[in-house]
From TrEMBL:
Bias-annotated ranges (Polar residues): 74-86
Designated name of the protein: VANG1 protein
Keyword annotations from UniProtKB, A to Z: Cell membrane, Membrane, Transmembrane, Transmembrane helix
InterPro entries: VANGL (IPR009539)
Gene: Vangl1
Length: 525
């Protein structure tokens, strides 16, 4: 526990030191400037330093700290954090209320569909049993004896209903993975088909058996068996339409993220646009690296700097004799624009050098920390069982030795918003529990992983909107383009049909591979 307190004091010390040092500097500056002020009514701006409860390991503003910092920035730099005020307008309130209404509508639609499917399934399973029991209840004395044949049919019906129940539970009663904007067409058609089928059987049963009170009980039982057999065939049709039809690859889709251009290719079968979008999103969370908006700030700052260097002068104004000088300044700005690639080259080279340097420091620090863990384990084996340290305490003990190197590396690679101190401690204790190597511990931080690797509160993509010119219930076709939008970026999906491949065969005679080697009788000496 003492190691954990030392760790927290390490991070909280930066804020206290920052506030006191900045305050002393401001007081000294005001003391030197006070003789020059006449009225002494200089206004001061107060800065409030607050730490959010679930603060990441580092501050979110890494781009400004990255500009012009040296390798000893932690010892020579004073950082100040401030709070910003946010306002909300009537449009935001209306949008939030609309989103709430849409979410309530989606929940109602989901539960309504489940209710209809459950009621229809219960009706399907009770119908064969009702066909068999109703004659026994209403006109039992008038029925013809059936004997052993009916008893064997009863066993057959029981097992068929059990198989149908298990198959229906496995196919239909699964937890939904997403809320789709439209109904699933094939599922709705199957529900309508089952309803019409059961309704027609009940209609025939009421007219031909209940009204006339048919006494042929064996025929009534066979009628119920035919219903169960037909339901089994409908279940087989549902498996073909819902599961097997989409397995064969027919289309290839290219998914491109709009912000950084990262792309992936996937093969899909016969699916509707909304179900293809669902498959794309499932693969996105697994295959695409996590979206990091901090990586885009460097290019934006370079673009802003470039636009600030371009100026426009009015060379045609009346009485302006400096037109030649203005043209020279415009030409200088153009030459500066042409040399921007050199700036980009040196910036990227310097950033890569800094990343490699801090990565090497991090690797060395983590290896030393794990070596210390091995020494602690050797010492713990000699102690009593009640005095042994658990993995959480061991992680808190070695974390301060690697915290600074990890902090600098995450800030340099702009990953600080995805890793809180608590998550790092949990991952470190997990690696210690499973006897993992330092490379296994660093794998999460050296290479940005997929979105599923991080906590859900760190995701920038939770709710998606499907934009398509075609109806979302229509099937995929060659050339179809649809967009999946979230708050900060979008996924552009382009569909291409797999071409028809014509494969021919060419026969090669086995004798054509034979050859004769002839040696000359005379050889040179």
């Amino acid at each position: 526990m003492s190691a954990a307190m030392d760790t927290e004091s390490t991070y909280s010390g930066y804020s206290h030191y920052s506030g006191h040092s900045k305050k002393a500097h401001r007081q000294g500056r005001d003391r030197h400037k006070s003789p020059r002020s006449k009225d002494g009514s200089r206004s001061e701006k107060s800065v409030t330093i607050q730490t959010p409860p679930a603060e990441p390991l580092l501050g979110n503003d890494a781009s400004r700290a990255e500009e012009g910092q040296d390798d000893n920035w932690g010892e020579t730099t004073t950082a100040i954090t401030g709070t910003s005020e946010h306002s909300i307008s009537q449009e935001d309130i209306a949008r939030i209320s609309k989103d709430l209404e849409d979410s309530v509508g989606l929940d109602c639609k989901r539960y309504l569909g489940l209710t209809v499917a459950a009621v229809l399934g219960l009706l399907v399973f009770l119908t064969p049993i009702a066909f068999i029991l109703l004659p026994q209840i209403l006109w039992r004395d008038d029925l013809e004896p059936c004997g052993t044949v009916c008893e064997g049919v009863f066993i057959s019906v029981a097992f068929k209903l059990l198989i149908l129940l298990i198959g229906t539970w496995a196919l239909f009663f699964r937890q939904p993975k997403a809320d789709l904007p439209r109904v699933f067409v094939f599922r709705a058609l199957l529900l309508v088909l089952i309803f019409l089928f059961v309704f027609s059987y009940w209609l025939f049963y009421g007219v031909r058996i209940l009204d006339s009170k048919d006494t042929n009980y064996q025929g009534i039982v066979q009628y119920a068996v035919s219903l169960v057999d037909a339901l089994l065939f409908i279940h087989y049709l549902a498996i073909v339409l819902l599961e097997l039809r989409q397995l064969q690859p027919v289309f290839t889709v290219k998914v491109v993220r709009s912000t950084d251009g990262e792309s992936r290719y996937y093969s899909l079968g016969h699916l509707s646009i909304q179900r293809a979008a669902l498959v794309v999103l499932e693969n996105y969370y697994r295959d695409f690296t996590v979206y990091n908006p901090a990586l885009l700030t460097a290019s934006k700052s370079r673009a802003a700097k470039h636009m600030a260097g371009l100026k426009v002068y009015n060379v045609d104004g009346p009485g302006n004799n400096a037109s030649g000088q203005s043209r020279a300044m415009i030409a200088a700005a153009a030459r500066r624009r042409d040399s921007s690639h050199n700036e980009l080259y040196y910036e990227e080279a310097d950033h890569e050098r800094r990343v490699r340097k801090r990565r090497a420091r991090l690797v060395v620090a983590v290896e030393e920390a794990f070596t210390h863990i091995k020494r602690l384990q050797a010492e713990e084996q000699q102690k009593a069982p009640g005095e042994m340290m658990d993995p959480r305490e061991a992680a808190q003990a070695i974390f301060p030795s690697m915290a600074r190197a990890l902090q600098k590396y995450l800030r340099t690679t702009r990953q600080q918003q995805y890793h809180s101190m608590e998550s790092i401690l949990q991952h470190l204790s997990f690696c210690i529990t499973n006897n993992m190597t330092p490379k296994a511990f660093l794998e999460r931080y050296l290479n940005p992983g997929p979105t599923l690797q991080y906590d859900r509160d760190r995701w920038f993509s939770k709710q998606w909107t499907l934009v398509s010119e075609e109806a979302v219930t229509s099937g995929l076709q060659d050339g179809v383009v649809f967009v999946l939008k979230c708050l900060d970026f979008s996924l552009v999906v382009n569909v291409k049909k797999i071409p028809f491949i014509k494969l021919s065969e060419e026969f090669i005679d086995p004798k054509s591979h034979k050859f004769v080697l002839r040696l000359q009788s005379e050889t040179s000496v």
